[in-house]
Specification:
binds glycyl-adenosine-5'-phosphate; 24 strands; 3 domains; BirA Bifunctional Protein, domain 2; alpha+beta; 457 residues
């Protein structure tokens, strides 16, 4: 499938089937902001639940946190975000439109690794680079990406606040609270899922580059001597997760980030890139943040943020390995990996989402073959109640004919459709259709629950 066609199809399906809508669409939309619709919300929640199961519930060394989105200026000054969380911005001198200077230079084949703002301005002049609208460009300047707000009615600087640009800082500023309340032994981690905000200069590519985004992050606190081993361990955990959540592993590439391109706090970073239809770009990052953040918060808050080893008695500032995973980019990569088109045995063309059952919005759809035969509807309702109580996300679908229901359930990624028909009263069985193959088999009422327990495991 053509790359452009694939993204178009996924965007259209997402809107038409209730996964993802443009935010504020009724009023013309908001750039870089999206709403998750009824099925997108379930998909998102299922991914979060799977992430928490893998990284928190199945482990003994991980604590979950839900820290505030609003953060005070002092904490984000300490972390370096107030001073340095910025991108290079350049203005089209005719239209006034603003662009990422590094992106414009890279699109023109110019390497910007390690270049200062002044050097980027020079490169634009030297290579006579124009804006995408073919107009001259101005000076490159720094643009801070944080969204500012203020608290209360007072306008003094103490009321200045920000929407957090990453969930990570909420973890660092709670380090002491977690150590004092939970008494963990190093190594241990703190995991958090939540919204973050970045005033991206050019939000684009559907839910790839957003201004309101959601992150799933872990700050893993370690003894500094162990960082290389632990970094490698998290690299493998992230690969395992990518596979578990249903991302096409043949489209994943690991990239070692050079020193010049690493964030100021990182001594080593690997990006996990995904082959999106609009190019191979970052999906996740794994960074060795050293003790940078805890040291900075210690300095600015004048509060000791140490760890005292109960066995050796050694007191030190823990170092941190950070697996950071964007939730929206996960959803985009999952949808792009799952989207398939084929022709079934009866010649019918269809598209479907081959989502792993664990994250599919509905696990099973239950239907009566016809709507006007009470005994069929009654039996189907009974099956629906039984499966819903066992498997939760089971949907009732009696819209249109059975063929149309199959097409709809295929498109939203429901792994199984169950239909009660006339024969069900003869053989005590119902028909179960598999989304991926389109094939049907008859399963006895008595075996239904155990059948699906095995299939949905
Ligand atoms: N705490 C580290 C951190 O925030 P980052 O590379 O800036 O590092 C981590 O972001 C992840 O968050 C990215 O790998 C990506 O998945 C996601 N992400 C970052 N900016 C994003 C944006 N504007 N829109 C959507 N996802 C974004």
């Amino acid at each position: 499938m053509e790359h452009d066609a694939l993204i178009e199809k996924v965007v259209t399906l997402s809107k038409n089937r209730g996964f993802i809508f443009r935010a504020n669409e009724l009023y013309g939309g908001l750039a870089g902001v999206y709403d998750y619709g009824p099925l997108g919300s379930i998909l998102k929640n299922n991914i979060k639940a799977l992430w928490i199961k893998k990284f928190v519930e199945e482990r003994e060394d991980m604590f979950l946190l839900d820290s505030a989105i609003i953060m005070g200026e002092n904490a984000l000054t300490a972390s370096g975000h107030v001073g340095g969380f910025s991108d290079p911005l350049v203005k089209d001198l005719v239209s006034g439109k603003e662009y990422r200077a590094d992106h414009i230079l890279e699109e023109n084949g110019i390497n910007v690794e390690g270049k200062t703002l002044e050097e980027m301005t020079e490169l634009i002049k030297e290579h006579k680079i124009l804006s995408p609208e073919k107009n001259p460009l101005g000076e490159v300047r720094e643009f801070n990406l944080m969204l500012k707000t203020s608290l209360g009615s007072s306008s003094d600087s103490s009321s200045q606040a920000y929407l957090r640009p990453e969930t990570a800082q909420g973890i660092f500023i709670n380090y002491k609270n977690i150590v004092d309340s939970m008494h963990p032994k190093i190594p241990f981690g703190v995991a958090q899922i939540g919204k973050a905000y970045r005033n991206e200069i050019t939000p684009r590519n559907f839910i790839f580059r957003l201004r309101e985004l959601e992150q799933m992050e872990i700050e893993y606190f370690i003894h500094p001597s162990e960082w290389e081993k632990i970094f490698e361990y998290w690299r493998e955990e992230m690969l395992e997760w990518l596979e578990l959540v249903g991302i096409d592993m043949s489209k994943i590439h690991e990239v070692e980030i050079s020193e010049q391109d690493r964030a100021h706090y990182s001594k080593r970073t690997i990006d996990f890139e995904f082959e999106y239809p609009f190019g191979t770009k970052e999906l996740y990052g794994l960074a060795y943040r050293t003790d940078y953040d805890l040291k900075k918060h210690e300095e600015f808050s004048k509060t000791k943020l140490h760890y005292q080893d109960p066995l050796s008695g050694e007191s030190y500032t823990p170092h941190v390995v950070e697996p950071s995973m964007g939730l929206d980019r996960t959803i985009l990569a999952v949808l792009l990996s799952a989207y398939k088109e084929d022709t079934l045995g009866d010649g019918a063309e269809r598209s479907y989402l081959a989502l792993p059952p664990q994250i599919a919005p509905y696990k099973i759809a239950v239907s009566p073959l016809v709507k006007n035969k009470d005994h069929i509807v009654e039996k189907a309702r009974e099956v629906f109640g039984l499966l819903k109580s066992e498997f939760g996300n089971v949907t009732w679908d009696d819209n249109g004919n059975v063929g149309k229901r199959y097409r709809r359930q295929d498109e939203i990624g429901t792994p199984f459709c169950v239909v009660v028909d006339y024969d069900s009263f003869e053989d005590n069985k119902i028909s179960v259709r598999d989304r991926n193959t389109g094939e049907q088999e008859r399963v006895s009422f008595d075996d239904l629950v155990s059948y699906f327990k095995e299939k949905l495991a």
